[in-house]
Amino acid sequence: MRLTQFSDFALRTVMFLGAHPTRLVPITEVAVAYGISYHHLTKVASMLADAGVIEAVRGRNGGLRLAMTPTDINIGWLVRRTEPDMALVECFEHETDTCPITSECRLRKALKDALRAFFAVLDAHTVSDLLGSPSRQEKLVQLWRATA
Amino acid sequence: MRLTQFSDFALRTVMFLGAHPTRLVPITEVAVAYGISYHHLTKVASMLADAGVIEAVRGRNGGLRLAMTPTDINIGWLVRRTEPDMALVECFEHETDTCPITSECRLRKALKDALRAFFAVLDAHTVSDLLGSPSRQEKLVQLWRATA
User: Fold this and answer.
1) What's the pTM value of the predicted model, to 2 decimals?
2) Three-state SS annotation for A83-110
């Protein structure tokens, strides 16, 4: 069970932008700070911009910045947006389900409850919680800089 | 986020065997009852036998049966055995993690807590709970028979 790399990169991007609130951040800077693919990040940034989470300013002095305040970016909400598929097993999707016992199955209910518990934890967090105090954010910035 | 088809089939197999406690069940019967791949099921059965969950008796009158009582087969335990990878994101695996902020990252903790909550729900269930009373099991058997 894994989240997609897309979700992983989306979460990392909003954390990076949240810790750099005063300026536009070029995508390259995020890619270098984490040592991850610039190409993948452009797709992630495009999705985050479409979702209204970030703003992408084009041009020579352009870059990314959060379009929402960190207290308003809920982690559970974000993961639901970035994951293409939260159907743990076949019977979660009515259209393609062929299992004959779905109507009476308690396993399905147990898995749905487990997924609900998973998101209940993520729903209790925002980007702001994850970033913490200004001094913690400064520590994160130092760690990113050490990579760049 | 999905469980593997392997986990899905393993869970379905133990439920089927749990509802047919008095005889050896040929793999074909499980495959036909669910309308799923016989070939995949043989691999699932082999893993479940290695894990001591089921017993596979070879020969013309052979088949599968549970090697543990349904009350002893915990769903969380089983899913941990059948999933190849519970590393939601890169930083869950120390060996391959390259993220520079792992040591200070609260996102990692939030995701770990979410995964823990997911398994806490599954850990509260056994195959016996999922099968329910003998009359519920009879209902499941009827649904499987309707497919075969």
Assistant:
1) 0.90
2) CCCCCCCHHHCCCCCCCCCHHHCHHHHH
